[in-house]
Amino acid sequence: QTADPTTTSEPTTQSLILRHKNTTKGLFSPSLSTTGLENADNPDANTYSIIGYFNDTVKRAEYQNEDGAYHLKLQFTYADGTQDTLEWTQTSWITSPNITGFTLIQATGTDGLDYDIYADRYDTQFRGLGINAQHPNSSYLDGNGVLLPYWWQAVGVMIDDQGGIPSMDISVYGLSKGTARSESLWIYKYATQTADPTT
Questions:
Q1: Torsion of CA 88, 187, 76, 87, to 10 degrees
Q2: Distance CA 91, CA 94 (A)
Q3: Fewer CB atoms < 10 Å away: N or C end of the chain?
Q4: Which pTM was predicted?
Q5: What are the counts of helices (DSSP H) followed by strands (DSSP E) for the chain?
């Protein structure tokens, strides 16, 4: 009996969907919270977002893996040049207030410290990205959605919070890098591959 072909999906490319180059040179406009777009035709601008283009569910489907999840990467850069990187998958779209299907792939910092984010303090855990439902005038997205009245892991900031972007609560590690100066958010695109069991 011949086995059935197996179908899998693998990430092939990553697309930049939001970037904030430098908070000292300006913040996102409040209109980001309703449109998801800013300087959409100019990825070299200080504030750039094309998340609003993904309101089209057909377009979003091109970026889902075989489990229906989205694969994303968020990177924060600090004034001293160090970075924190979060990479994960989630089944809810990033503008949903309720985050579902979160799976952390990696959470690392260039100072050599691995952040075990999901097992950390309840109020600052990273749970994926969702719309900042509790502080919509502060940032477009955050790391807990509607769940908590905090906006750690903020994406698309519209107000200056202690000089930058609320990123990781690294105080729990005895560190003090402060808020981030810049951030970038990417989404991975998947391609379906079918394996022939006879080859």
A1: 20
A2: 9
A3: N
A4: 0.84
A5: 2, 10
Contact between 75 and 85 (Cβ < 8 Å): yes
Stretches in the chain below the pLDDT threshold 50: 118-119, 172-174
- Interatomic CA distance for residues 92 and 18, integer angstroms: 18
User: Which pair of structure tokens corresponds to residue 4?
Assistant: 């059935």
Location of structure tokens 């057909």: 58
Q: Which residues pair with 189 in a beta bridge?
A: 13
Q: Which amino acid is at 194?
A: T
Q: Rounded to whole angstroms, how far apart are CA atoms 139 and 19?
A: 13
For residue 146, which amino acid is it? V
Q: Which residue has the tokens 């913040």?
A: 27
CB 95 within 8 A of CB 36: yes
- Where does residue 155 rank: exposed (0-12), middle (13-18), buried (19+ CB within 10 A)? buried
What residue type is 128 in one-letter code? G
**CB 152 within 8 Å of CB 142:** yes
For 191, what's the count of Cα atoms within 13 Å in the CB-facing half-sphere?
A: 5
What are the residues whose beta carbons fall under 8 Å from the beta carbon of 63, sequence distance 6 or more?
Answer: 54, 70, 71, 187, 188, 189, 190
> Distance between CA 12 and CA 189 in Å, rounded?
6
The predicted-structure confidence for 93-102, as pLDDT tens digits, reads as follows: 999 999 999 9
